[in-house]
Amino acid sequence: MPTQATQAILTPIPSLSDNYIWMVQKNGHAIVVDPGEPGPVEALLHDGLTLEAILVTHHHSDHVGGVGALQQRTGARVYGPRHEKIPVCDVPLSEGDHVNLPGIGLRFQVLDIPGHTAGHIAYVGLLDTGRPAVFCGDTLFAAGCGRLFEGTPAQMLDSLDKLACMPPETLVCCAHEYTTSNIRWALQVEPGNAVLQQRAQAVAQLRAQDLPTVPSTIGQELETNPFLRTAQPAIHTAAHQYARTSLDTPQEVFACLREWKNDFK
Ligand code: ZN
Ligand code: FE
Questions:
Q1: What is the pLDDT of residues 174-233, one digit of tens each?
Q2: Are 248 and 255 within 8 A, CB to CB?
Q3: How far apart are CA 81 and CA 112, in angstroms?
């Protein structure tokens, strides 16, 4: 049988209570994104698999808690946000920077996506399948978005817009398994969205088998994620009814949705 060239493998590694540490591996090399603890990554490393790099999107402990230990044990290079303080950072990054990872044959472009935290960054690259992927930490989630701990609604909306204009087939590699509760809320906002209803069923089936609901795609998010749909009349109407006041700009609609989600149980 002819041997095929190995393709990069993209894996969400479950960590802590509901985090994912993303791993990309190829030809015996691996990188991880946002290791909140070292154990789940160490369990996958072996003589034939070397950790080449650790990429960090923002400073929260559930994303950086494993960085120091992993760097010490493997010597992997640590890349992280230039404008945030993280435990170890060999290469500080902000928008316009690139990350070359020859071991796994990937090159990432860095985007500034503030809002969840002030210096949050994303890594955007083309997998060797030709498929774009974005590692977006706690900014864009499947059917949701991150809370605004350090940013304004306008900043977060700009950041989400940057992600939303990526090609629809782009894989969205977010850092938490929040999809079930996000979809429960999204159905309150937009109960008549048939694509969202189908997604709810697909997600329920995956979770019943304890499988990840990610990566999703930008296309799926555009059709089902209320935070990317502030311009849709149905979303605007729902937000207006929730706020009981007129909402004149996309930023006001977004801010209302974010508060609605914060209060949703
Ligand atoms: Zn976070
Ligand atoms: Fe987080």
A1: 999 999 999 999 999 999 999 999 999 999 999 999 999 999 999 999 999 999 999 999
A2: no
A3: 9
Give the H or E element holding residue 136. strand 132-137
- Give yes or no: 58 in active site: yes
Crossing angle of helices 233-243 and 179-189, rounded to 10°: 90
Catalytic residue among 34, 60, 112, 120: 60
Partners of 234 in beta bridges? none
- In whole angstroms, give the CA distance from residue 213 to residue 207: 7
Domain boundaries, the chain: 9-263
The greatest distance separating any two alpha carbons of the chain, rounded to the nearest whole angstrom, comes to 67
What superfamily does domain 9-263 belong to in CATH? Ribonuclease Z/Hydroxyacylglutathione hydrolase-like (3.60.15.10)
Helix (H) or strand (E) holding 39: helix 39-42
Q: How far is CA 260 from the centre of its chain?
A: 21
Which ligand gives the minimal distance to the CA of 21?
Answer: 2
How far is ligand 2, taken at its centre, from the CA of residue 61, in Å?
A: 8
DSSP structure class, residue 148: -
As a whole number of angstroms, the distance between CA 14 and CA 177 comes to 9
